[in-house]
Design brief:
Blueprint: H1 11-29, E1 39-43, H2 68-76, E2 80-84, H3 85-96, E3 105-110, E4 114-120, E5 123-124, H4 156-159, H5 161-170, H6 181-186, H7 190-214, E6 219-223, H8 227-236, E7 255-257, H9 264-278
Parallel strand pairs: 1-2, 3-6, 6-7
Antiparallel strand pairs: 3-4, 4-5
Helix pairs in contact: 1-2, 3-9, 7-8
Length: about 290
């Protein structure tokens, strides 16, 4: 796999960069481009203009008023599937990860912010415009921290990677000196331990909501957050007792860590192309 970090993730910069990476991957594979089944493009929501379109660093600005699928298909000259990163991550985890033996589960995806992928009865739940699962903007503390979306007390201001960096910066930790969330945790830095405690409280509330809304077999945490940090968060969870998931007869724990790693969303994007290619479709004519 190859990764390229972009300072400017606008369509004008990102689409040519993706095009070059795909061309390089095809050349390195030694295969003919005509054998390319398609490209899965995975990105954070929301799709289309909404009240969350300008809600801070977790949102890609400049994409809200363009036809993303059409623009990528023109640039790449192949079929394209556009998917929310959390949904793609859930697909990846079901394909070859922690959820490979499950039909209904939820995946809390740590990107810059937080997203939720929902698989119910073996099918991903996308919503009307592909924006289902914006869990980062459910409120877990009334009149809490201000969020760029305009709300106060949003989950991702407390429990996301972005929220962690803001908390640590306020505590005087200089992340520019090479420190990572994992290294701070391994060093038992007091500020990092304090963030873990607080973030786990907010995640516990959110997970309880997810359980009662979707009745999943489990809730999986994964994405770009380091495994050691996810494990620490899970250890500190205080899950609500009043939940449909709080029952003795369980096949899986209420919360688990994903196993696909930081590339889980990208793997899911590729899997969607394969799934579309090999799965028969039925067209109904009226």
């Amino acid at each position: 796999s190859r990764r390229k970090k972009l300072k400017d993730a606008s369509p004008e910069k990102a689409i040519p960069a993706v095009t070059k990476l795909i061309a390089a991957a095809i050349e390195a594979s030694g295969r003919d481009r005509k054998n390319l089944l398609g490209t899965g493009i995975v990105m954070p929501g929301p799709f289309g203009e909404s009240g969350l379109s300008y809600s801070g660093a977790a949102v890609l600005s400049g994409w809200e008023n363009i036809d993303i699928k059409e623009e990528f298909e023109k640039a790449l000259a192949c079929p394209v599937i556009i998917e929310n990163d959390a949904t793609a991550a859930a697909v990846s985890e079901r394909l070859a990860g922690t959820a490979s033996e499950m039909n209904s589960f939820c995946f809390i995806y740590f990107g810059t912010g937080l997203g939720l992928g929902v698989i119910a009865g073996g099918h991903s739940q996308r919503g009307a415009l592909g924006n289902a699962g914006e869990i980062g903007h459910i409120i877990t503390e009334a009149n809490g921290l201000p969020c760029p979306c305009g709300n106060f007390g949003c989950l991702e201001t407390y429990a996301s990677r972005m929220g962690a960096f803001a908390f640590l910066e306020k505590a005087g930790v200089n992340m520019d000196e090479g420190a990572t969330l994992a290294s701070l945790l391994e060093a038992q830095h007091p500020a990092m331990l304090e963030w873990i405690e607080g973030a786990a409280q907010h995640l516990s509330q959110a997970i309880g909501m997810v359980e009662n809304l979707f009745d999943p077999e489990t809730v999986i945490l994964g994405g770009a957050m380091a495994d050691v940090v996810i494990d620490a968060l899970i250890e500190k969870l205080d899950l609500p007792k009043g939940s449909v998931a709080n029952r003795p007869a369980r096949s899986f724990p209420r919360v688990m860590r994903g196993s696909s790693g930081r590339l889980t969303a990208a793997i899911g994007g590729a899997a969607m192309i394969i799934h579309r290619t090999i799965t028969p479709t039925v067209t109904v004519f009226h």
